[in-house]
Amino acid sequence: MLRTRKVVAACAGLLLAVLAAACGKEGSPPVKGPKPEQLPVYKVDTGFRLPASPTWTKAKKRGYLRVGAKEDQPYLGEKDPATGIYSGFDIEIAKMMSASLGFDPKTIRFKTIASANRETALQNGQIDYYVGTYTINAMRKKLVGFAGPYYMAGQGLLVRTDENDINGPQDLAGKTVCSAAGSTPYQRIAADYPKAILVAYDTYSICVDNLLTYQVDAVTTDDAILLGFAAKAPEEMKVVGKPFSEEPYGIGVPRSDNALRFALNDALEANEKNGNWKKAFEATLGLSGVPAPTPPPIDRYPAT
Length: 304
Ligand code: GLU
Hints:
Blueprint: H1 2-11, H2 15-21, H3 54-62, E1 66-69, E2 72-73, E3 77-79, E4 86-87, H4 89-100, E5 109-112, H5 118-123, E6 129-130, H6 138-141, E7 144-153, E8 155-160, E9 176-180, H7 184-192, E10 197-201, H8 204-212, E11 218-222, H9 223-232, E12 237-240, E13 247-254, H10 258-273, H11 276-283
Bound molecules: glutamic acid.
């Protein structure tokens, strides 16, 4: 216990380093990460043209795509602090899309954007599209467009391994639970579990820091994100209970750019059919222990 506390204290504020070193504990599993040779190579569709899309047209003139993503979500969207290189399942989706739109994925300029700022970033043209555990829902559809879904997650709970009282959202009364501002899991706890004491930060990695230092009792967000954190420090944290929502992940696009949304839907479908989706999944999110599911059906809603 004492040892755990010391290790936990050493972890504070150093989450990425901590996860990378698994808190320096002997016998911790080595950190598994996507190896470049396991990842698919996406063929660039050099003849691709999409003049009906203002986003694509501007990107073509510029010569590269600007893509919004997360940088602290293990196996989904991670930025290597040393090299600045992004990796993970969401990043692979972003690369697949880039290749299909006729841009070499190597040229993508990723920009980290927190959950609360995604709609604004798309609305004011800071990014061309966004791939980062972004749940499609009716409220967001009023502000942005969504291609996909390309994955179905569900809300879950992450606790310390020494926690035995929390096994589902019904156990959160009087407990401190942390989530990201502007996220659907935050909104669901606020609406459906009002007895929980909610704390919001910009990112889930700050929540995880707070969990490891006993500042909060649980972290809530999508199971896909939580399983990644737990997989990197299995002696410190565990995911408990069953998923209690459906979180279909979409690619966010500017709302009026229907041509881009339709092209991304086609590109997703093609990559699901040719095996790239599954290969990408297995080399990234699959490493957190999730077997590759069948991707959910694409929602080709009409032009807005
Ligand atoms: N999928 C949820 C959302 O879009 C939670 C994950 C996140 O914040 O990115 O709000």
